[in-house]
Known about the structure:
Blueprint: H1 3-33, H2 38-77, H3 81-84
Amino acid sequence: xxxxxxxLTFAPAGLMVIGLGTCLVQWASNLxxxxxxxxxxxxxxxxxxxxxxxxxxxxxxxVAESVLYQLREKASDLPTAETKS
Length: 85
């Protein structure tokens, strides 16, 4: 996979997983408000935060791949010693 392909895969996937994680955090919060057993809402909250952090990690990887892609593109645009002569 090229850096561009990885960027265009990881960044949107990360955003979708972040959205899922925030929905799960709200769900766990709702469980607490409904006075569900502590183990239930704590477990749900832990899962929700894990999903949210996974989304941030995926998005971060997408940003890193974007930077690597841009650096490669910029490097290919620079003149080489052979083209200067």
